[in-house]
């Protein structure tokens, strides 16, 4: 059995709790919120008996095995570090941390304490990712990859009105790259590993945060262009082009809902190995299986992938001149 407590009460937590409800051997026993009333509705909805308003009390709860962190990006490191120090396993919502140094510090601590640590990035655990990997050799040498994940944010209206929501605040490690383009990066890098070079051209608000932009990943034999936007909607899509054909992922990298394969002039082939409406089910199924099997090797493989993505995010931000408050922090 894996007993979980959550930090955060946003829509992603609601979706996660719904996914966990479908899984066996996983129970959510507690929630944390600074104000009890903000967690009460979710606690009632999912039958969660305990609400904490003090993090120390949560971290010291002997009934909790694992902490799921869904707080603002800039708080991921501190809360994950404290949880690991208290001997709790951790699942940290994407982006894993604000900086590469933070990610490396957490990974080292988890390994030293023989604890599980995961980044909650859903798309790399989807069954359709496995299908894509199986079909890639049929494309021949890959030459171009195009990814677009664009979703107009209601918080962008607040930004235009002169407010600074967390998701568009450098103090909270926000922006389109960290919030939405990260799905494209995880998908491409889960398939092809780390690129040779990284560049990022962004549309930036007056406060320096990126509201949209294009990351270009240069590999030895091909180029991947990753578009992520929170200031516009777009035709979300992934297109992988090889000399013998192309593979298209409908509706973008975050859900990988359907796959179309076109080889030469042959009739197109369609694939879909996913039958869950809530695709967050698959990542929590993976976390549960790794946890119950005590498969630290797989956990640390996933952590190395997350570390590599954090490195690319850091290079992209540096190229675009996007600075976070966390860049100046001196952590433990």
From TrEMBL:
- Gene3D superfamilies reported in the protein's UniProt record: Dihydrodipicolinate Reductase, domain 2, NAD(P)-binding Rossmann-like Domain
Q: Which InterPro entries match?
A: Gfo/Idh/MocA-like_OxRdtase_N, GFO_IDH_MocA-like_dom, NAD(P)-bd_dom_sf
- Annotated Gene Ontology MF terms? nucleotide binding
Domain GFO/IDH/MocA-like oxidoreductase, chain residue ranges per copy: 138-247
Stretches assigned to the Gfo/Idh/MocA-like oxidoreductase N-terminal domain? 2-117
Q: What is this protein called?
A: Gfo/Idh/MocA family oxidoreductase
Classification of source organism: Bacteria, Bacillati, Bacillota, Bacilli, Bacillales
């Amino acid at each position: 059995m894996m007993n979980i407590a959550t930090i955060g009460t946003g829509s992603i937590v609601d979706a996660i709790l719904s996914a966990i409800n479908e899984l066996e051997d996983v129970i959510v026993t507690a929630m944390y919120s600074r104000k009890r009333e903000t967690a009460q509705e979710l606690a009632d909805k999912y039958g969660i008996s305990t609400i904490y308003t003090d993090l120390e009390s949560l971290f010291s709860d002997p009934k909790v095995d694992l902490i799921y962190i869904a707080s603002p990006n800039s708080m991921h490191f501190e809360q994950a570090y404290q949880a690991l120090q208290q001997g709790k396993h951790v699942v940290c919502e994407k982006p894993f941390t604000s900086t590469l140094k933070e990610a490396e510090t957490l990974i080292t601590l988890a390994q030293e304490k023989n604890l599980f640590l995961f980044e909650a990035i859903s798309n790399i655990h989807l069954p359709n990712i496995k299908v894509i990997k199986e079909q890639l050799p049929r494309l021949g040498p890959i030459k171009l990859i195009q990814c677009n994940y664009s979703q107009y944010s209601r918080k962008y209206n607040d930004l235009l009105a002169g407010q600074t929501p967390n998701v568009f605040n450098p103090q909270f490690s926000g922006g389109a790259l960290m919030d939405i383009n990260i799905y494209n990066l995880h998908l491409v890098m889960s398939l092809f590993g780390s690129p040779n070079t990284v560049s990022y051209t962004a549309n930036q608000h007056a406060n320096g945060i990126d509201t949209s932009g294009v990351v270009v990943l240069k590999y030895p034999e091909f180029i991947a262009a990753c578009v992520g936007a929170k200031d516009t909607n777009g035709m979300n899509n992934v297109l992988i082009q090889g000399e013998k054909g192309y593979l298209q992922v409908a509706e973008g990298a975050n859900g990988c809902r359907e796959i179309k394969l076109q080889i030469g002039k042959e009739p197109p082939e369609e694939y879909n190995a996913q039958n869950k409406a809530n695709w967050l089910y698959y990542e929590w199924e993976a976390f549960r299986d790794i946890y119950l099997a005590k498969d630290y090797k797989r956990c640390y493989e996933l952590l190395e992938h997350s570390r590599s993505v954090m490195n690319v995010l850091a290079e992209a931000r540096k190229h675009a001149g996007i600075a976070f408050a966390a860049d100046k922090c001196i952590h433990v």
